[in-house]
Amino acid sequence: MLGRSPTFTAAVFGLALGLSGSVAAAELNIAAQSLEGALRELGQQSGRQILYSPDLVQGKRTGAVHGDLDVSAALQQLLRGTGISYQIENNTVLLRGPSEAGTLELGPVNIAGAALGVTTENSGSYTTGSTSTATKLPMSLRETPQSVTVITRQQMNDQGLGSIAEVLGQTPGVTVMHDDSERYNFYSRGFALDSFQYDGVPTSDFTTNTNGLGVRDMAIYDRVEVVRGATGLMSGVGSPAGVVNLVRKRPTKDFQGYISGSGGTWDRYRTEMDLSGPLSENGALRGRVVAAHHDNQSFIDYYSQKKDVFYAIGEADITPDTTLYAGIDYQKIDSDGSSFGQLPLYNSDGNRAKFKRSTNPAAKWTYADSQSTKYFGGVEHRFDNDWMMRIEASHWKGTTDQLQGNIVGWGPFPDETTRIAELQRSRVNYKINADSVDAYATGPFSLFGRTHELVVGLNVSNRRSDYQSLDGGSINVNYDTWGNNPPQPDAFTFQQSQEYKIKETGGYAALRLNPLDDWHVILGSRVVNYEREGTLTYGWKPNDPSDDSAKKTGKLVPYAGIVYDINDIHSVYVSYTDIFTPQSLFDKNDKALEPLTGKSYEAGLKSEYFDGALNTSFAVFTIKQDNLGVDDGVRTGGLAAYKATSGTTTKGFEMQLSGQLTPGWQMLAGFTYAQPRDKDGNRINTNLPERQFKLSTAYKLEGALRDLTVGGNVTWQSSTYSEISYPMDARTDEGSFAVVGLMARYDVTKNLSASLNLNNIFDREYYSGYGLYSSAFYGDPRNMTVGLKYQF
């Protein structure tokens, strides 16, 4: 019987907690969509509880249902052609597949769980039912004692989020700084957010400012989970900012797929395909393939980019309890007219330089080409006692080749009178290889008559990278008349090289103790062995390389959290963890700074409504750090110098709402205030806003417009400023600003939809980042994208 299967999972839908009683005919408004999403809306609009196995509906789609219908009539329309039958018992609806004979029985099914699951694809939601990024233990957002945001597949589709930079741009509490045409840096709570995971596995593959991670394509991901605050338990060496976990799409047991195409302003064109399903009759062998091609010009003169993405993964159930999987993730990005740094901020007299948004400071012949290939595979075994063990290994290889020729915004600065600027020409090559292994086991255990949870694991990573830059010489150009076509360099001379070998081993364990029904205590620790061998060689002293090596053995990073359930809706929590981050920063004597250390404290209130379909949170936090590297002018060769400062403190608070407000209305919104200060109370990282508000929403209309979904997004930030003290004192201020976008999607049929995304509708002129060498990057002007998508 269906109710007696140990793998059966109940999905419960209700418009409000405690809703009961038989509901007769009701005015229903359910658009064409995935069958899972349609069943969720039917449960919410009718007040019924609908129970089924997720595998039963996975990959299936259905047509629209509208009108004054009872539940039985609505189910007949939704389930037509699926082979799924139903049985109504009082206020509960039970679904069964064509192979399940006899009468359905509810059996020992737990119907108290959240309606949403871990996977966000086909959920139609802007929130999730479970996340494990913070502690590796699968918990709801309310159960996790840290600030967590999940950007779901539905939000990425609705808002047209195609890159990790665009995803983090809509993530509350995260600041995206656009350094130049190819590179981004991300920040949270005032500090660099540079810790990334793939499917929960820490990676040292590449930083945000190398090899195109900032423009990494999102076609292959189900969701992006962002934990803000120190996460040393799960993310290797602990960063005070947080961690970003990119969760890949997985194969499905039922066939599903889509093809899509879009076009937009500045000749932006994109095609995308996603096919998933069984490769054997019983679905024990299944696979998924995702491919995308992106080609675009830009509002920036002479700049263009092409991107190709390919992703393939296969899964095999070699026994009912053991699954093997393997895959490849490939991305190639070729950019022409690419800039290293962006428009200079200052003239030689210290006044602000004046350039149009469309001005490209790079020569037409510049380019930036990168390739990224990642192979991964693993095994997952589920034991009879509800324990699970998983082992994954991966190999990553990345290369970058750049020919650079840029007007620079530093010594000498452009001359406003003569219109003369210096153009630097160079060649850059970067190679990286990284191997990693992650193994962990998790499951429940009993102690003192209560059930608790434990996870133990081990990460091992080994990264090797080589960077080399060659100087092609500097020339002067008249930036009014040069036409972006200066002479290319005839020859190159050695400028600098960097060779790194980084090994890291981390063992971790975490307990979730449940001493009382309403109290939950999470205790954990990570033991880190970190070794970095770095050699930096400069052209002005080729026989005297600088050493950037660091080693730490047995570094203990503790973690603790307590959650108290006030009632069925609200919980309060506190959490604490240590900070430990080795730094590749140098002082004026070419000596590497000691690792950043500190402590992070957080407390908050979390609430969930409508069986977890809507989540809210409020958090206050304090971060204390020592050995923070701050700007200290320049060192030999004009390179940046830093000094370590202790007593740095960041205080702030965050508010967030995510999920469904009413049937058909999804929203993610958040406000953040973070105040980083040095020991004397002075503001640090002034080019980052201290206050941010972000909102993304989509609403499905009713009545005659029931096939139309409308929405939009707003990003607001407070004022920032950037200043320099060498070779002159100068400062750039940017006031607070907001950028607004709109979206619409129309379901032409149950399989075909058309979409429209309008970005920066008020054409706000603003800086999207302060870049290298006293430069700034303009945000995109008003633009639009239209698309068609056909789903199988």
UniProtKB/TrEMBL annotation:
Signal peptide start and end residues: 1-25
Secretin/TonB short N-terminal domain sequence ranges: 48-98
Main location: membrane
Annotated GO MF terms: siderophore uptake transmembrane transporter activity; signaling receptor activity
Compartments where located: Cell outer membrane
Membrane topology, as annotated: Multi-pass membrane protein
Domain of life: Bacteria
Keyword Repeat: no
Family annotation (InterPro entries): Beta-barrel_TonB, Beta-barrel_TonB_sf, Plug_dom, Plug_dom_sf, Secretin/TonB_short_N, TonB-dep_rcpt-like, TonB_sidphr_rcpt
Record keywords: Cell outer membrane, Ion transport, Iron, Iron transport, Membrane, Receptor, Signal, TonB box, Transmembrane, Transmembrane beta strand, Transport
Gene Ontology CC annotations of this record: cell outer membrane
Pfam name, any one: STN
Coiled-coil region: none
Family: Belongs to the TonB-dependent receptor family.
The name this protein goes by in its record: TonB-dependent siderophore receptor
Provenance organism: Pseudomonas poae
